[in-house]
Design goal:
- With 264 residues, the protein is an alpha+beta fold.
- It has a single domain, classed as Endonuclease/exonuclease/phosphatase (Deoxyribonuclease I, Chain A, 4-Layer Sandwich).
- The chain has a six-stranded mixed sheet.
- It is globular, with a radius of gyration of 17 Å.
Length: 264
């Protein structure tokens, strides 16, 4: 069995205490982090090594973005795609060894896209759509068992948001974003692991805004984080969980971890 976790941590150095707590409680074999907000030189390698995560692939950026994959099993970094086409650190791909032999894990942080869902009025929204289109061209050529995880910044289903009608014109749930993400899904036949195990229309959120004073009472969440697998790999996923309780930890991220277990 191989257990893989994904978490937009919103600054790995600031939130290392809750990362340690999560690792201690869940013991994933591989942890994919997004929005680490640090360069490789200041990444907390030693803290992860003390926890047994001595294999790493870090694609960092000072103060913004950045992704990192840390592992207890051997891995080999194989790619850093610039789907943003401007040098931002938003992807790192690795191939697992050991118990995960042959599995490729792609760790991605899709741009949020700003506030206005119109590429003519909002450059950031256009960049987000272009990012997804470049991912789609890449997905057409994927030819090995692959898991792509991370903060996609899109909640595609009606049950992925707290209020479908109110959010239809809000970036992350607009029809054009959903259609663009669906094209990415179809380009490789990805399986949405989360929704294979927590079936639509069951409630499934992974993000709650910091603006909400009591996230649990208001529960205005969205499913922005995803774990998608190649068809053959998806059939080996035996469990999936969303760790909502982490949103209540001290100095939390606004996202919570996702975990999938594979019987390889």
């Amino acid at each position: 069995m191989v257990k893989i976790a994904s978490w937009n941590i919103n600054s790995v150095r600031l939130r290392m205490p809750i990362v340690e707590r999560f690792i201690t409680e869940e013991a994933p074999d591989v942890l994919c982090l997004q929005e680490i907000k640090t360069v490789e030189e200041t990444f907390p390698f030693e803290a992860f090594a003390k926890l047994g995560y001595v294999h790493t692939a870090v694609h960092g950026q000072k103060g913004y973005h950045g992704v990192a994959t840390v592992s207890r099993i051997p891995l080999k970094e194989h790619s850093r795609h610039d789907w943003q086409d401007n040098g931002e650190a938003r992807h790192v791909g690795v191939e697992l060894g050991g118990a995960g032999q042959g599995m490729v894990v792609e760790n991605v942080y899709v741009p949020a896209g700003g506030d206005i869902p119109d590429r003519e009025l909002n450059v950031k929204f256009g960049q987000k759509l272009n990012f997804l289109e470049r991912m789609t061209r890449w997905a057409e050529k994927v030819d090995c068992p692959t898991l792509i995880v991370g903060d996609f910044n899109i909640a595609p289903l009606e049950s992925d948001v707290w209020n479908h009608k109110q959010l239809l014109k809000v970036v992350s749930h607009t029809p054009i974003e959903v259609d663009t993400l669906n094209r990415f899904r179809d380009a490789h036949g990805w399986s949405d692991i989360g929704r294979e195990h927590i079936r639509d229309p069951q409630r499934y959120f992974s993000w709650w805004s910091y603006r909400s004073k009591d996230w649990k009472v208001n529960d205005r969440g969205r499913r922005l984080d995803h774990m998608w697998a190649s068809p053959q790999l998806a059939r080996q996923a035996v469990a999936h969980s969303v760790h909502e309780h982490a949103r209540d930890w001290d100095k939390p991220s606004d996202h919570v971890p996702l975990v999938t277990e594979f019987d390889l």
